[in-house]
Here is the input.
Amino acid sequence: MSDTVESAKENAGTAPETPAREATGYSWYVLTVLVVVYILNFIDRQIVSILAVDIKADLGLTDSDMGFLGGAAFAVFYALFGIPLGRLADNWNRVRLLSIGLALWSLMTALSGFARNQVELTLARMGVGVGEATASPTAYSLISDYFPKRQRATALAIYSSGLYIGGGVSLFIGALIVQAWNKAYPGGGPLNLVGWQAAFLAVGIPGILVAFWVSSLREPVRGAMDGLAATSHTNPFRAFFSDLSMIVPPFTLYGAWQRGPVALAINLLTAAAIAAFAAWMIRLTGNFPQWSAVGFGYYAVFSWASTLRAKDPATFRLIWGTPAFICTTLGYGLVSLAAYALSFWSAPYAEIVLKLPKQELAFILGANGALAGFLGVIIGGRVADGLRAKYPAGRILVIILGVIGPVVPIWIGYTTENSTLFYAMNFLAGMLGATALGAAAATTQDLVLPRMRGTATAAFFLGTTLVGLSFGPYMVGQISDLAGTMVDGKLVGNLRVGILALIAVAPIALALLVFAYRLVPKAEASIVERARDAGEAI
Here is the structure.
């Protein structure tokens, strides 16, 4: 065994004597546990959807307010903390990090049940975002070290199936708890909690127990599957707090000042430009929380990328300096924009527009979402691996399917008054959109060195969150409010118009992915060379 691999083994502490280049039975066991974690992740994240009508009525909110709570309130903090936590996943024990994160987001979900107004619920959702930011950077990195490259898209697709299972289960569980609680306690139950608050408590508490199960997993040798075993950082938490300071003002200004007056001037000008844009959007839409959160998020990302360029030029070059990575991430980010919007608004749409009973729509949409997502992501992952074996950029073709495929089902499903056709088209749109995830995730992992995978995952999820989740639910809600009418002094939104507006993002996503298809082969073939040119010792 080489000195490098031996050193990595000592840091990991639990790896076998000779790391295998094939997936083992234990690899599949770890993947199973990670799927369970991701199911809990999306139950806690998506349960707001089935509770939206009750929360909106109880707290006196609008569709755009609910879009913010289902999107940017969670997404900005999920994306931003994914940056330092992604780096921590690259430098520290990933199993421990995931265990701590799971316990945190489960606790914050339970605390959402005690919210009495929009501010309190927003703060709790921010906490959920921070905790859940540990999940995918650690899981993606662990999977990449338990499975060889030829199986990686399939393994990542199986992991990603937890997204759809959790999202579907959350609808059914949420509706069941709300109905049972409100029936048992019509005027409010213990601690004066109503149904939607009890639902948050019921889904949050079990995750704290699962965190102990996760902590029993073994940490693999980092990078051994690719023959590029890497050592862990000697002081991972110093690096973590350094990374955290990159995204939290005013530390961002201090970091820019350390890099020189030009860097400080650029940082200040960028902050002013983003603040001006956010202020303009606040005046235009009247939604202060959404645009202040988005503005803060985009400024923080700029500050982080600038610091990364100075401190780790090789990682910066393989992520931010690689157009193939950027086009793949943004292209899939727009796929996720539509997917997140539909997953959040389909249940309220069915309840408000089609007048379907909550328990029925929750059961059917939940089962639909779980099955459609599971089939789509597994089939997409397998097809992506098959195409990757034939064409260097073959996986991009599957992402393109995720853009084009859902367009017609969305149009039919959200213009019909027939509930059966609505359910069928929602299933088809969800399945076709889900095919893209494993392909996109595997493509971005293949464009970086093993030591950079946690950071690459964080950057990938910046696209799916700050583009997809931050804007998908909010965009539908805002357009619904703009197209709505006043009834008895209250604004009644037009969710049909809001959801159909999602089709407009497809041409932009398609253009980005066509560029990615052309750029990926050369980018992947030149990883080591470009990393060396940026100062990486390989």
Remarks:
- The mean pLDDT is 87.
- DSSP finds 24 helices and two strands in the chain.
- Strands lie at 485-487, 490-492.
- The first strand starts at residue 485 and ends at 487.
